[in-house]
Design a protein that fits this description.
This protein has helices at residues 20-32, 52-66, 81-94, 111-124, 135-138, 144-153, 167-177, 192-197, 212-223, 227-236, 238-244, 251-259, 276-288; strands at 4-8, 37-40, 72-75, 98-102, 129-133, 157-162, 183-186, 202-205. The chain is an alpha/beta fold and 293 residues long.
């Protein structure tokens, strides 16, 4: 259902709130760059430091600005199941095309708890749901057996965004969901083509904030099974991707976007601007690639 490259979009801030002028510029650059869809209020969008009112205004602005030109997915996850349910219902009422639901963080629930968490959301919200496995941030890992069980039992779950970083596990997940309508999706720019070889159809990308055209093309090649071209294009940006994750996301990508004139380099505490030494390396690599002068 959601195929190609989707940008996990940053949230541009000013000194006083969300910078909607920059946000509009960023959205337009994504759509004109050929991106297949946009994910708002995911990890890259810094929702943990935004108020409920800010997130509501952002969702309204996003839907109005995109205006059905590409699919819009809202992050609705929470470590409180009731809150995740409420967030998801709200996204459906507002007109989102889908929801991205991270596994409940901090609680360290069991696999049964994970299953029931997602089932509770699906019981109340019929929007297509992408479940998001990122154990490095959440402390809980959606195991292949659980992904397979969710794929069999809950038809509104249409994808799993895999960012566990373990290709062996991702291969087992691919086997577990084989034959279902659940799509395998990469949440890791660097593994996009490897995951495509396992049957992945989608990249939910951080790097595409800065390079929508290029990262959209990577998945076009991959979905056409032209893996050599996909590898070659992704390989061109190998060092850039390393630098974009040399500090915690979204610190480096926000700096990169500021160099492109898309936003100010403002993050909210406890996130801080990129260190001078690593920022210099990132700028130098962007210059080498002729992304900036």
């Amino acid at each position: 259902m959601f195929e190609g490259t989707y940008t996990a979009i940053i949230t541009p801030f000013s000194e006083t709130g969300v910078d909607y002028e920059s946000f509009s510029k960023l959205i337009e650059s994504q759509i004109s760059g050929g991106i297949d869809g946009l994910v708002f209020i995911g990890t890259t969008g810094e929702p943990a430091t935004m108020t409920s009112d800010e997130k509501k205004q952002l969702r309204d602005f996003a839907l109005k600005t995109v205006n059905h030109r590409v699919p819009v997915i809202f992050g609705t996850g929470c470590n409180c199941t009731l809150t995740a349910v409420e967030n998801s219902i709200q996204a459906q009422r507002e007109g989102a095309d889908g929801i991205l639901v991270v596994s409940p963080y901090y609680n360290k629930c069991t696999q049964e708890g994970l299953y029931l968490h997602y089932k509770s959301i699906a019981d109340k919200c019929t929007l297509p749901m992408i479940i998001y496995n990122v154990p490095g941030r959440t402390g809980v890992n959606i195991l292949p057996e659980t992904a397979g069980r969710l794929a069999r039992d809950i038809k509104s779950i249409v994808g799993i965004k895999e960012a566990c970083g373990n290709l062996e596990q991702i291969a087992k997940t691919a086997q577990a969901i084989a034959g279902s309508s659940l799509q395998l999706m990469s949440g890791d720019d660097k593994l996009a083509v490897d995951i495509a070889r396992l049957g992945g159809t989608t990249l939910i990308s951080v790097a595409s904030n800065a390079l929508p055209k290029e990262f959209a093309q990577i998945m076009k090649y991959a979905n056409a099974k032209d893996y050599d071209s996909a590898d070659a294009l992704l390989g061109k940006y190998d060092n850039l991707i390393d630098l974009l994750f040399s500090e915690v996301n979204p610190i480096p990508i926000k700096y990169a976007c500021s160099l492109l004139g898309l936003c100010k380099n403002i993050l909210r505490l406890p996130l801080t601007p990129m260190s001078e030494s690593k920022a210099a390396l990132l700028k130098e690599e962007m210059q080498r690639l002729q992304i900036i002068r």
